[in-house]
Amino acid sequence: MRSRTGALTVAVVALFLGVLVVSQFRSREAFSRTLQQETPETLTTLIADLSDRNRQLRDEIFDLRSRLEQARSSIAGGRGALEESERELAHLQVFSARSAVSGPGIAVRIVGPFDERALSDLVNELRNAGAEAIAVNDRRVGPRTWFGPGPEGTLVIDGAQAQGPWIVRAIGAVEVLYVGLTRTGGIVGQFQLIYDRTRFDVTREPLLRLPALSSP
Amino acid sequence: MTIRYVEPLHASIEGLQAQQDAFKEQLAGLRTELDDLQRTAATQSGATQDLQQRLDDLRALAGLTAARGEGLVVQLDAPPPIAPLDRPTCFAPDLTDITNMAWRAGAAAVSINGERVVGSSSVYCVGSTIVVNGTVASAPFEIRAIGDPAALLATFDDPAQLRDLKRRRDERSVIFHATRAPLIEIGPYTGPIAVGSARTE
């Protein structure tokens, strides 16, 4: 009986691994096929983006190694890992939008008709430009924030109705954020063509204060 | 441009993606090591135990821990091209719309082709290739959402939601369907946590 159960377990695991290998192979094959269709300009942009991301990862690995070393030496010296834990807590509070934050960034003022999909696209673009914290009017954008339509001049953010005009503020590297949004063919230029009755102003801000997330 | 210029570019992309996968694995290992160290140190005093609990809660909220549970799996793909010169689809807006919809329906965790969607995640197109969390991906896409399957399915089936995507599905210009799943696993976010400009108040 035991050997039959064992054989069944082995068969289920083998089947699962087989499905996994096949699906990974298919996904890799599909990815290679997509690359074949891309232009050299697109491939070059992808290479630049991947290199940039790999540099960020390398920096974080370097930083984490040094923090590990410091924590080990602090524990060995009888001081525990309190300092490292407090540092990580502060990082995670920013990353998960659980604390009010301040710092330099940009503000996008939107006066006129605007919809939830455009707002979602704007937030996506700000994240793409490396925004560390984002707020729409007085509401902080969190990891699970969603946008929905509302009655005339309003939108729904995380289930709560919010009233325009809109001011979207983002903390991060000011020039990267500013150029990311205002470059030729960028999202603000596209918005100006689509929402021709709406005014969009992007400004650099030396100090922004954003509230903590108000919903879980 | 001739193949001899394009092929090295393909090889570079595949090499950089493989390097990224290795970096992510390394980063995940270092995060676990640091977590273990803090956990061991936390057993020594009540104050650090409380801090450890807060760290654990924040890691889960931020998407830095694996999640599992019932939910919904959404498949998104382009039908085979009718003509060889048919322009491939950029799925980035569809992927952000589907993710937005999942959060709206109360999802606890979402992933796109295995990439955990977190507070810093962005989805964009370079040509028809998608970049999620700085990782390149292409169709077919699988979006996993952990949450109440009935609530998720009801939101996805609501005719007022994802209208554009549903219209294109009805016109057979996109393959799009959602199915309930009794058990979904979504791995932790393994990318960088860039906090350089923002300070807690």
Can you offer a commentary on this structure?
The complex is a heterodimer of chains A (216) and B (201). Chain A has 216 residues and is of the alpha+beta class. Chain A has a domain at 102-210: Alpha-Beta Plaits. Chain A has helices at 2-37, 40-76, 82-95, 116-128, 174-182, 187-194; strands at residues 101-111, 133-136, 139-140, 147-149, 154-157, 160-163, 166-171, 199-210. The longest helix of chain A has 37 residues, at 40-76. Chain B has two domains: 3-62; 68-186, 2-Layer Sandwich (Alpha-Beta Plaits). By secondary structure, chain B is α+β, with helices and mostly antiparallel strands. The longest helix of chain B is centred in the N-terminal third of the chain and has 40 residues, at 3-42. Chain B is built from five helices and nine strands. At the A-B interface, helix 1, helix 2, helix 3, strand 1 and helix 4 of A face helix 1, helix 2, helix 3, strand 4 and strand 6 of B.
CATH class of the largest domain in chain B: Alpha Beta
Q: What is the arithmetic mean of pLDDT of chain A?
A: 88
The major sheet of chain B is characterized as:
5 strands, antiparallel
CATH class of the domain at 102-210 in chain A: Alpha Beta
Helical proportion of chain B, percent range = 40-55%
Strand content of chain A: 15-25%
Query: Number of DSSP helices of chain A?
Result: 6
CATH topology of the largest domain in chain B: Alpha-Beta Plaits
The CATH H-level superfamily of the domain at 102-210 in chain A is: Protein of unknown function DUF881
Structural class of chain B: alpha+beta
Poorly predicted regions of chain A: none
> What is the typical, i.e. mean, pLDDT of chain B?
91
Low-confidence stretches of chain B: none
Strand-and-helix sequence of chain A, N→C? Answer: HHHEHEEEEEEHHE
CATH superfamily of the largest domain in chain B: Protein of unknown function DUF881
Q: What general form of chain A does the structure show?
A: globular
CATH architecture of the largest domain in chain B: 2-Layer Sandwich
What CATH architecture of the domain at 102-210 in chain A do you see?
2-Layer Sandwich
N- to C-terminal separation of chain B?
Answer: 53 Å
| Broad shape of chain B | globular
Largest sheet of chain A: 5 strands, antiparallel
